[in-house]
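so i finally got all the pieces together for this one. its two components total, 579 residues if u count the protein bits. some of the lines might not be protein, just check the labels. i wanna see the whole assembly predicted at once instead of chain by chain like last time, that was a mess tbh
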Amino acid sequence: MPQIEEVNVDQFRHLVSERALTGETMLLNMGPQHPSTHGVLRVLLELDGETVINAIPDIGYLHTGIEKNMEAKTYLKAEVMTDRLDYMNPIGNNLAFSMAVEKLVDLDVPPRAQALRVILTELQRIASHLVWLGAFGLDLAAMSVFLYCFREREIILDIFELCSGQRMMTTFVRPGGLWRDVPVEFETAVRNFLKIFPKRVDEYEALMTKNPILMDRLVGIGKLDAATALSHGVTGPTLRASGVNWDLRKARPYMGYEQYDFNVPTRTEGDTFARYIVHIEEFRESMKIIEQALNKLPMGPVHSDNRKFVPPPRSEIGVSMEALIHHFKLWTEGFPAPKASVYSAVESPRGELGVYLEGDGGPKPHRVHMRTPSFDNLSVLDKITKGHLVADLVAILASIDIVLGDIDR
Amino acid sequence: MDKKLEPIVQALQEKFGATLEEFRGEAHVFVKPEQIVETLTLLRDTYKFELLSALTATDYWPQGSPRFHVIYQLSSLAENVTTQIRVPVNGDQPKVPTVTRVYDLANWREREVADMFGIEFEGHPDPRRILMPQDWNGHPLRKDYPLGYEEPQFTFNLEEIDLQKPYAKE
């Protein structure tokens, strides 16, 4: 049995101030089991009374070796692991990985699949922001918002269940298209959601935005300037709240995002309140995109008919020998990818979700690296919490929208 | 390759003798380890690559030299172009100078690469492991590191395997 070693302050000596070593300030662990850290995150706090001098995040508690595991699986099977990265955004992760595979093997996606991918990822963005808003409210002791947000999130998860049979870990987006076409009830379900949701967003705003208690807690807290944000690789709503208009959906459109008319909400203050406003505005922009995509949803196939990469539909297997062979080959051996590397990035609800994918000529990837936005967004925590109270640290941590599965991978 | 990227790549080739590889429209520029700080400083200051999107590595074991490539994925928001800088590193005592002074993002990402691949970043301000426990042996993403598995317990070997398990026993 391994000995339990006492933690030695020496390994943190370069991270804390001199006063911590004399005992003038206090070192305190927040987490790893703490409801406000959104998972298993430990923050080593150096406190002077209740003021934060240093906040040193310690991550890795949820490390599951996903990148290593993917190297031992074929491309189609490795995709299943991407669901588990950022468990608030499984469809977005599927999309990021599928796009990397499509780029690596040069595979086209039919227009209907592209439009459906956009609708599903935008629904997922709303669902993710709803969890964010609920948890954010909960951290600020606004319990009711959490309940309302989860009520609306259920509607979206029901739509996912309708399409894929799964509420969260869908693996619905596959290299070359989608797993299968959406059922006929899909459009009605999404339109129903679009009818209900705008009023609900107004309700959240009525509860929170102009609430003086909330304003007191948020305005001017955790200021992040654009230069620091960019240097730390902070992306997504957190970067846009600091005044940088950078959204990959606009900057490098993928999946036909250039056809849709939407704004990129930006604020210049860079504080916790600005991040809150950007998230709320993104609800409305996502709804705009979904509505447009649904209105001009083209008919046609939902996956590429290149049978060397995309498994044939079930109906073909019984009547075509080639289909049976392809089915068998793709699910046992997998398809080979060239010995080269690609980097492809999408805008996840948290920022730039990049996939570095390298093939080795065989059916398994040589190296997969997920550039997960939460990891880099969290790295800025120490800088923006200095001088604030512990209660503000909780608000800041909630506002930068981290998911520990995304950080630790 | 993007038209806007051509003069940048040319400048790197002239200044650092960099080599270029292209694949599906992506430009991968190879530079030597000792040039990386200067390269990234030049790209950030002169060519407006404000964002270091990703910093990672890949292992080509059993090939020994170069065994690793350290990969820097850069984005320019102003010009909307991306490029990739790759640094080949040898297998015995791999070392690369740190770029934490150029991009703050490198602090955690270099710790991750050091943790996962055992590549030392010289001059790093906080060279602790980041994802694995501090007392971990080995570097999991190296190709010679086994994937590892746990032997499944059945009724006939339950106790035998239980004895080898690391958790506390009565």
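Chain A touches chain B through 46 residues (CB under 8 Å).
Residues 111-139 of chain A form the longest helix (29 residues).
anyway lmk what u think
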